Amino acid sequence: MQKTKLDIEILSCQILEDVPSASGIVKFKEGFYVIGDDSPYLFHLDNNFNILSESLIYSPKKLQGHRIPKIDKPDFEAMEMISDTEILVFGSGSKSPERNVCVLIKIGKEISYELYDISLFYKYLRNMEFMHGYELDIEALAMNGDLLHLFNRGRNIIFRFSYKDFITYCKTGINFPIPKANLFSLPKINGLEAGFSGATTFEDKPYLIFTATVEDATNAYDDGDILGSFIGLIEIKHGELADDFLIQHIPNPGFPLKVESVIIDKVISKTQTDLVLVTDNDGKPSEIIRLRMTLNEI
């Protein structure tokens, strides 16, 4: 990948009306599904990002308007399609037990969901050697074959494990899969390292697409000043993640972006891919961005 350059171009940027704290997006047929980190709803959007419907995927103790209070929220941050009609969502794990949850959403004539307590699994992640002295803060999910890739922000680790084994654990509460872990060092802004924030995969190319953000916060629970975001590619070689990666700063459209999730909208050619990203501006309106990613040989 050293002989390849990653170029990006923002095609459009608009306010995502009525979706609080957008944190995850997936492509579904001609539209999208979006979640927010303090929202109990799954939002269905058309291709122009208009809301078609909203479906409850979590029963909160309290609601303040359309938001779950910070102390109670499950902090849904990681989201990916795991079949043509199923979406998997993870809470961040940054506060126990509220955020030690996983939701399997089934899309049909009506939306149905199953909520799982994954406290034992998250406890194991927190106690892994790579995590000593760091907080768990799951922010992104990508699936490649049977392997789930969970991205931790702060200590930039990708945990990899079998989806089949994981969903069996969710349903039975025993024998969670033991993950492999890869540690990455990401670029900095003002001396602060970027943290993983979003991810997805190609259907037919051995790459993980990821986003990373820089936020001036002292822990995984509190918000801080937003400084900017990056997008990158990690190659999958013989089933393992490459140590090197491509990464590029996302231009700021007049203000720093806190990109929270990324999904492929359409593949234009072998070298060009159109992506859709969502942002969470910590209480301000979310944005949704169309971006073109190009791989150029150098």
Structural key phrases:
mainly beta; globular; 2 helices; four-stranded antiparallel β-sheet
Gist of the model:
The protein is built from 2 helices and 22 strands.
SSE blueprint and pairings:
Elements: E1 4-15, E2 22-28, E3 31-36, E4 41-45, E5 51-56, E6 76-83, E7 86-91, E8 101-107, E9 111-117, H1 119-126, E10 138-144, E11 147-152, E12 157-162, H2 163-172, E13 180-183, E14 188-189, E15 192-193, E16 195-201, E17 207-216, E18 225-237, E19 240-249, E20 259-267, E21 272-279, E22 287-297
Antiparallel strand pairs: 1-22, 2-3, 3-4, 4-5, 6-7, 7-8, 8-9, 10-11, 11-12, 12-13, 14-15, 16-17, 17-18, 18-19, 20-21, 21-22
- N- and C-termini, Cα separation: 10 Å
CATH fold assignment: Neuraminidase
Q: How many structural domains can be distinguished in the coordinates?
A: 1
Q: Mean pLDDT score, rounded?
A: 92
Number of distinct helices = 2
User: Which strand order does the major sheet show?
Assistant: 1-22-21-20
> What's the shape?
globular
**Record field, number of beta strands:** 22
Order of helices and strands: EEEEEEEEEHEEEHEEEEEEEEEE
